[in-house]
């Protein structure tokens, strides 16, 4: 289904043909699979005459003839239509010397040596060397000359030694045979093919079987085509029993001759003469015969560009793997390891038909819609983080938007969600008919390669069938985790598969082919961050406040969002986030989506890295809860990225890295917030004014009482932090913080307002009630 070879196009004059070519009248010229003969030649060109019809002629210039002669389909056979050449072909039944076996070629050359040596001696010694009575002595003399000459040639310039094996014809021909050779040789215009021996036609080729035997052979050879798959020996035994027990006794009574039992070889020959397709269809079924006999080749020849056509499919890995983290396995006891769940994962793959590059790999428990969407997302996204975390040497920089996707009609592919994703990416798709895996032959072959080159090295293989598995117990020997399998697959694809020369690509590697064709044709660019978020993002709902929208402890705010808050208040808005990039969030306002940027430190930071960094900071700063600054976030993220555990976690190709439930669960445990109250919003009209200076404070009754109880020493100015409490709290109790800088309400206020809960990171006096969606 794909053009898999990189073969340069035809080049005119590639074989160095002369400017003007001379042909004889008896030459054969083959152009466009038609035999031609020269009819006329002048300074302008040739007039050719069709060999099969003298009335058909064509003209061709010398320049055009040179171009035609440079093509691979052109042929020129000198003196093909000469009488002597045709006589030699009739006798030898071949057109070229190299069409004969080696021994026969040597025999023909030996005969020609006799003829040529006789002519040389006849010219040198005309009185003694004649075709008369002393011919037998002359032939003996010629034989000694030829043996001596060929013996020296066989030594190949080396010294003589006893026991050297040489192929020589010792006995000379008789006078009668020699004269027959000479007559045939001269009659064929000295074409040595005419000297071929007639022994290749020897033997009695007539059918030795009687009519009754042929009927029996036909009958039992047809029984071979049966779903019970009888053997040839078994059929011959049945035929023998019928002849000896049934037919021969009846023929003996009737006075007819007995029927001899045909041999095993004769019955086998009768079966071998039947069509192979007919035998497979009869013994294994029509579907199996069609599968084995279906023609295949290089595939579609119009696939020229990289990522022009991509095949995707799922395959159940022939390996029992363990659902546990890698770091836990060595610490478990033997009984604990046995109790762990052992499953066979499903591998989804996407491969480019033109370059054989693998665009995506996803391991999942089953072939599902989620795994298909993630497979498409990985194909169009940057995969550098997977290669880096898996320790690959070769960059995994093969990504872009494909033009066409070929997939099967299974529920994991043929559904509204996957088609909607492809529609948003402007990718065409084609669903292959069921039961015809050769329509996606490249990805099917990829799975076979991964099974033999990768999976075969692990313990716990389930093999392709029961016969191949034997008494091997995959559950008892399973010791490979899903994470380990994923890393090995990524490493094999990036460092081995993409760098292996393929004969389908003319000896070029997949990566070289991709790089070359990308420079020549280019590829459709991958989706931008906004498109990735809208197509592959996760939908959540959040209540907008004066500080914007908070997700995973990150404050997303903009001037447009704040103006919308001033109009509608703290309403619940539909949001869309992309776990692979927390730098921005999409908020639906009306019928359109608004992109709201977060702190610049979170640009291209994925959710897993931020969750791990927040957990590390929470462990170090457990004694307090406060808003952190940009440098602290950057240092924490860099520290987390340097750890191998998070690197391995980010390199997972098993399931989705973080789903909606996992993100919300992680968000509920967060206490460190990425909020910058001292920083100035760039969207504000005046750089020196706080972005929340125009916000309308919403103060509850409990918050008001808490503010009066705090009694600050001085009123803080807008945009600055409040002063610390004037009174020193008693030992063992936390101070009641000022409303301007506090993150928790006083104890009395907390009791008075059970339904209202303070939100960390808010400005003084601003409160809201957390919804169930939080």
Please summarize the sheet with the most strands: 6 strands, mixed
* Principal-axes shape call: elongated
At CATH level 2, the architecture of the largest domain is 2-Layer Sandwich
* Unreliable residue runs: 1-7, 324-329, 647-651, 676-696, 698-704, 706-774
Q: Give the number of DSSP strands.
A: 19
Figure out the total of helices.
27
Domain module tally: 6
Arithmetic mean of pLDDT: 75
Q: What percentage of amino acids are in beta strands?
A: 5-15%
CATH fold group of the largest domain: Nucleotidyltransferase, domain 5
Q: Gap between N and C termini, in Å?
A: 49 Å
Approximately how much helix is present in the residues? 25-40%
Quick one: CATH superfamily of the largest domain?
Answer: Ribonuclease H-like superfamily/Ribonuclease H
Radius of gyration: 44 Å
How would you characterize this protein structure?
This protein is α+β, with helices and mostly antiparallel strands. It folds into six domains: 1-81, no CATH class; 97-158 and 165-199, no CATH class; 211-293, no CATH class; 310-520, Nucleotidyltransferase, domain 5; 529-668, no CATH class; 697-774, no CATH class. It contains 27 helices and 19 strands. The strands form five sheets. Strands 6, 7, 8, 9, 10 and 11 form a six-stranded mixed sheet that branches. A five-stranded antiparallel sheet has the order 4-3-2-1-5, covered by helices on one side. A hairpin with a 2-residue loop joins β1 and β2 (34-41). α3 (102-124) packs across α5 and α6 (211-223) packs antiparallel against α7. The chain is elongated and about 130 Å long. Mean pLDDT is 75; it is low at 1-7, 324-329, 647-651, 676-696, 698-704 and 706-774.
């Amino acid at each position: 289904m794909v053009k898999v070879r990189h073969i340069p196009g035809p080049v005119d004059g590639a074989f160095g043909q002369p400017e003007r070519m001379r042909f004889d009248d008896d030459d054969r010229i083959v152009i466009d699979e038609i035999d031609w003969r020269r009819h006329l030649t002048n300074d302008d060109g040739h007039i050719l005459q069709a060999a099969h019809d003298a009335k058909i002629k064509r003209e061709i210039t010398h320049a055009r003839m040179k171009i035609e002669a440079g093509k691979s389909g052109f042929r020129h056979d000198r003196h093909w239509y000469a009488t002597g050449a045709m006589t030699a072909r009739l006798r030898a039944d071949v057109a070229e010397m190299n069409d004969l076996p080696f021994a026969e070629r040597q025999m023909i050359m030996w005969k020609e040596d006799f003829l040529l040596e006789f002519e040389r001696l006849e010219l040198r010694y005309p009185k003694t060397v004649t075709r008369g009575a002393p011919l037998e002595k002359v032939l003996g003399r010629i034989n000694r000359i030829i043996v001596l000459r060929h013996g020296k040639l066989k030594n190949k310039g080396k010294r003589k030694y006893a026991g050297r094996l040489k192929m020589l014809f010792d006995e000379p021909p008789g006078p009668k045979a020699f004269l027959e050779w000479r007559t045939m040789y001269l009659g064929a215009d000295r074409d040595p093919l005419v000297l071929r021996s007639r022994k290749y036609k020897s033997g009695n080729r007539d059918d030795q079987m009687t009519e009754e035997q042929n009927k029996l052979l036909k009958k039992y050879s047809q029984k071979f085509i049966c779903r019970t798959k009888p053997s040839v020996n078994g059929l011959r035994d049945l035929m023998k029993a019928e002849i000896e027990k049934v037919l021969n006794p009846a023929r003996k009574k009737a006075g007819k001759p007995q029927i001899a039992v045909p041999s095993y070889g004769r019955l086998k020959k009768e079966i071998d003469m039947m069509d192979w397709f007919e035998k497979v269809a009869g013994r294994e079924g029509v579907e199996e015969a069609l599968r084995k006999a279906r023609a295949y080749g290089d595939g579609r020849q119009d696939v020229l560009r990289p990522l022009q056509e991509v095949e995707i499919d799922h395959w159940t890995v022939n390996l029992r793997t363990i659902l546990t983290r890698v770091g836990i396995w060595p610490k478990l006891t033997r009984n604990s390891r046995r109790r762990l769940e052992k499953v066979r994962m499903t591998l989804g793959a996407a491969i480019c038909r033109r370059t054989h590059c693998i665009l995506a790999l996803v391991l999942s428990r089953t072939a599902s819609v989620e795994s298909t969407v993630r497979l498409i997302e990985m194909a169009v996204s940057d995969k550098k983080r997977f290669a880096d975390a898996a320790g690959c040497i070769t960059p995994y920089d093969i990504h872009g938007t494909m033009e066409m996707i070929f997939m099967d009609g299974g529920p994991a592919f043929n559904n509204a969600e996957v088609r909607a994703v492809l529609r948003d990416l402007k990718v065409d798709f084609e669903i292959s008919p069921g039961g015809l895996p050769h329509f996606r032959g490249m990805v099917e072959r990829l799975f076979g390669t991964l099974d033999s080159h990768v999976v075969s090295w692990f313990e716990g293989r389930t093999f392709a069938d029961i016969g191949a598995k034997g008494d091997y117990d995959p559950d008892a020997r399973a010791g490979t985790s899903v994470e380990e399998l994923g890393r090995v697959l990524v490493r094999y694809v990036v460092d081995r598969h993409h760098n292996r020369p393929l004969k389908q690509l003319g000896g070029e590697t997949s990566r070289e082919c991709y790089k070359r064709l990308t420079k020549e044709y280019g590829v459709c660019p991958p989706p931008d961050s906004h498109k990735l978020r809208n197509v592959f993002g996760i939908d959540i709902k959040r209540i907008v406040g004066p500080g914007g929208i908070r997700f995973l402890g990150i404050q997303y705010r903009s001037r447009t969002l704040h103006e919308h808050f001033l109009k509608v208040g703290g309403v619940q808005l539909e949001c869309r986030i992309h776990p692979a990039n927390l730098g921005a969030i999409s908020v639906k306002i009306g019928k359109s989506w608004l992109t709201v940027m977060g702190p610049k430190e979170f640009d291209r930071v994925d959710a897993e890295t931020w969750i791990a960094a927040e957990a590390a900071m929470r462990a170090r700063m457990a004694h307090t809860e406060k808003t952190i600054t940009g440098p602290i976030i950057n240092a924490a993220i860099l520290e987390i990225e340097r750890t191998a555990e998070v690197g391995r976690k980010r390199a997972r190709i098993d399931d989705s890295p973080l789903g909606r439930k996992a993100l919300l669960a992680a968000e509920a445990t967060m206490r460190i917030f990425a909020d910058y109250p001292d920083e100035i919003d760039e969207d504000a009209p005046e750089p020196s004014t706080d972005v929340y200076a125009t916000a309308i404070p919403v103060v509850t009754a409990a918050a008001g009482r808490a503010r009066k109880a705090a009694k600050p020493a001085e009123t803080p100015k807008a945009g600055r932090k409040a002063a610390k409490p004037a009174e020193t709290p008693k030992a063992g109790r936390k101070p009641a913080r000022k409303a301007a800088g506090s993150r928790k309400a006083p104890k009395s206020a907390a009791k008075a307002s059970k339904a209202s809960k303070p939100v960390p990171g808010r400005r003084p006096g601003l409160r809201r009630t957390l919804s169930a969606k939080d």
